[in-house]
Ion channel (Colwellia maritima), 158 residues
Amino acid sequence: MIVLQNAMEKSQLYKIDEFGVKNYNYGVVGFLSLALFAILNISLGYVTFLAETSVANSPVQNYVDALWLMLMSSTTIGFGDVYPITFVGRAAVFIMFILGVGILGGVGAVFANKIFGFADTSIKNRELRRQNAEIFAQNIKIHQKLEQLEKKLESLSK
């Protein structure tokens, strides 16, 4: 577990600030997500190409058709002009549909959060922690002054 935490910190995917809040490097996360998306499209497109072009009457005639099929599956558009007819082709489309929707949805959520600032709790948490630290320091000063006043009152009453 410690090895994994060290690897995550060295990966520059996030840094922990003075309040213990993880601040993710969304540029790196977005780039890695889109790279994974491209690799999945290219590799599953190739698998589909190999499975479908060997079958007669398959709408997938070449690699571009297979790549188009993967892109349409991952974005849930699915025009229907190219579709798989083999089990391997359908399995590849299913895998691309599940993973592609997840990756694109995650990337879209990250960018929407950055652009529109929905639920940017890290900034709010940092501000609240700063305010709490200031209030706590002020309370300590007030407590010390009260103790001094109590001692003075006790010495006057004797």
